[in-house]
Specification:
Helices cover 44% and strands 22% of the residues. It is globular and about 50 Å long. The termini are far apart. It is α/β, with parallel strands linked by helices. The relative contact order is 0.16. The chain has one domain: 3-Layer(aba) Sandwich (Rossmann fold). The strands form two sheets. Strands 3-2-1-4-5-9-8 form a seven-stranded mixed beta sheet, sandwiched between helices. The protein has a two-stranded antiparallel sheet with strand order 6-7. It binds S-adenosylmethionine. The site of S-adenosylmethionine has 18 residues, from helix 1.
């Protein structure tokens, strides 16, 4: 199955994952990190590989103008419905395109901020996409890159699944099979990502971590308990910009600028 079909066919599982406590944490922390960098005035923001717009809609609700690009029609339709139910249809534009050709679809438009959240690991030519993002960012614009941390898979196998053989196998691997979409992704560690950002001309500003604790707890019931979840959110919010937690989290979240 090609990657686009895999995304089109798994929107329901994706929605379930997004609405679960760990999904809620991912979007809450992502938004909190971004709010530290985005000016309060209305900005133009491109969400590349933005899927069903779970990052885009809260930003539109803050008054920003969002363009969401994705190659999956199902994801975009889901996002467009979500925009309507949140009263931000007038602040969101959905464009169907592969990232390799998105420039042609936006007629040279540039943006105050560009998000690329959990997209880069699926691409064959990540540097090509980073270069295109750089070209479409306004001077001093914000680039938000979120991507899976390969080290978190080792911790997950060892601590959560108690599978030490599987944990050992994850070390040094350059690819990984994603359970939700059943496709293979590339794995880049923090230093490789920093080098890629530098090569494409971005100025690194800050690294956050998204979910330093949640993924290593096997007991999902505690996460579904509203009182305990509130405490977990407070803990994750405190750890998200502190070493060593940023380097152990499920996702790296890099903020860079175009200077
Ligand atoms: C893991 S989802 C992340 C969605 C969203 N950024 C988020 O974090 O909620 C990856 C998204 O990238 C899209 N995608 C993957 N490869 C793509 C490509 N070559 N061109 C355009 N979109 C792509 C998928 O359709 C999917 O919506």
């Amino acid at each position: 199955m090609d990657t686009k079909t895999a995304f089109n066919q798994h929107v329901t599982q994706w929605n379930n994952d997004q609405d679960a406590p760990w999904g809620q944490l991912r979007y809450k922390i992502g938004l909190a990190n971004l709010e530290e960098w985005l000016e309060k005035r209305p900005l133009t923001i491109l969400d590349l590989g933005g899927g069903n717009a779970y990052d885009a809609i809260p930003l539109a609700k803050l008054g920003h103008q969002l363009t969401v690009i994705d190659f999956s029609e199902e994801m975009l339709e889901n996002g467009a419905r979500y925009a309507v139910s949140n009263d931000v249809a007038n602040k969101t534009t959905f464009i169907q395109s592969d990232v390799d050709s998105f420039s042609e679809k936006i007629n040279g438009q540039s943006f105050d901020a560009i998000l690329c959240h959990n997209l880069l690991q699926y691409l064959n030519y990540p540097l090509k996409t980073l270069k295109a993002i750089h070209e479409h960012l306004n001077p001093n614009g914000i680039f938000s890159l979120m991507i899976t941390n390969p080290h978190s898979e080792t911790f997950t196998q060892a601590l959560r699944n108690l599978d030490f053989d599987a944990a050992l196998e994850t070390t040094g691997k350059k690819t990984h099979q994603v359970t939700t979409f059943k496709v293979t992704i590339n794995r880049y560690d923090e230093s490789e990502l920093r080098a890629m950002l530098k090569t494409t001309g971005f100025t690194f500003q800050k690294l956050y971590g998204v979910r330093a604790i949640c993924d290593y707890i096997n007991d999902n019931d505690i996460k579904h308990n509203p009182e305990e979840f509130k405490k977990l959110v407070a803990l994750e919010m405190t750890l998200r910009d502190k070493l060593p937690y940023t380097l152990l989290s499920r996702f790296y979240h890099f903020i860079s600028t175009k200077s």
